[in-house]
């Protein structure tokens, strides 16, 4: 079986590599020549534990080849980004372009699968596009949607072991897509239709966003009420049917802070909680900025001098080096608009250099600061010995234990 992946990004590349490692012949296609060259050298352009070694071995064995152009295959996977436009409307133009790029290669019996997070109805729309240009393929090819659900940092394990939801535009399509995923997924493969599968993905990430918004709202209430939110949540979670997530300095990454808009833009009247959760999580980031500025003012008033400040963490979540859509990075950017860099120490233990921020080791940053602001709960920060002479702002629960 020959498989063509369109898109070699954070999901496309690991999925191409894992399926190649199970013996499939895989062509990985990307419009970026650097990515194609990097992969063909057996190297990777993203950071993901275990992916580098596996890529080298499947490129050496010949099971994975990267290319700028799709090639004749049996299964085609669309794994390209679906960003949103300025008004939070999803932009499916990359999915469309990927589909157009393979339309002329499709032949009877082939399977076309979209993995990109997509608004409801995208798979049907792409089916219409394919059949409008190739009407003779009607009922002759399989078209399905199968969302990815892997957690950055644990992708290789989860790609094989997570359950998958697979929805075809008809039963025959679902069967064909299931047959493909059986080749490398050990988790259960759950069948449904394409629209439900699309909505499952949006629902999973919206559900997490809503739950985090609840925790973030609690943290703001507790701050005003003089209650330690971390203790509160730990105690509430002792209830057998309560399981509250943790507050933070906002919700980042490419998925949870984006996917809910795919629902709210299509169902603005009906998606009230989902929209509110987005609003609360975005507001939490600005609230952290305000809290920090207030602490700085208070310090100045009490001590008659400007404090030095340590900003701890830039990544979008703990223990990764990914700064994409990171609320911590946004907070640092906003604070730097008002503070002179001389007084600020920025620490991110997972990266060594950054083109915009001057980084300091987290030990130095902590040692030199009057005010320490914990933005991301990286494991390194847990080891810091707390000094009594500092103002500590903990937005992510580093000090909770
Ligand atoms: N966060 C909190 N409090 C928490 C948990 C997370 O504030 O208790 C924040 C994180 O700090 C981060 C953001 O949420 O800023 C998102 O992090 P995450 O670990 O919740 O999720 P991602 O973006 O790394 O991956 C999610 C996962 N989806 C779900 O857990 C429902 C993953 O399984 C998906 O595959 C991925 O989105 C995706 O690609 O859609």
From TrEMBL:
SMART domains named in the record: UDPG_MGDP_dh_C
Record-linked InterPro entries: 6-PGluconate_DH-like_C_sf, NAD(P)-bd_dom_sf, UDP-Glc/GDP-Man, UDP-Glc/GDP-Man_DH_C, UDP-Glc/GDP-Man_DH_C_sf, UDP-Glc/GDP-Man_DH_dimer, UDP-Glc/GDP-Man_DH_N, UDP_ManNAc/GlcNAc_DH
Keyword field: NAD, Oxidoreductase
Gene Ontology annotations of biological process type: polysaccharide biosynthetic process
E.C. number(s) listed in UniProt: 1.1.1.336
Enzyme class: oxidoreductase
GO molecular function: NAD binding; oxidoreductase activity, acting on the CH-CH group of donors, NAD or NADP as acceptor; UDP-N-acetyl-D-mannosamine dehydrogenase activity
Presence of keyword Oxidoreductase: yes
Segments forming domain UDP-glucose/GDP-mannose dehydrogenase C-terminal: 310-401
Family according to the record: Belongs to the UDP-glucose/GDP-mannose dehydrogenase family.
Protein name in the entry: UDP-N-acetyl-D-mannosamine dehydrogenase
Coiled coil: none
SUPFAM superfamilies xref list: 6-phosphogluconate dehydrogenase C-terminal domain-like, NAD(P)-binding Rossmann-fold domains, UDP-glucose/GDP-mannose dehydrogenase C-terminal domain
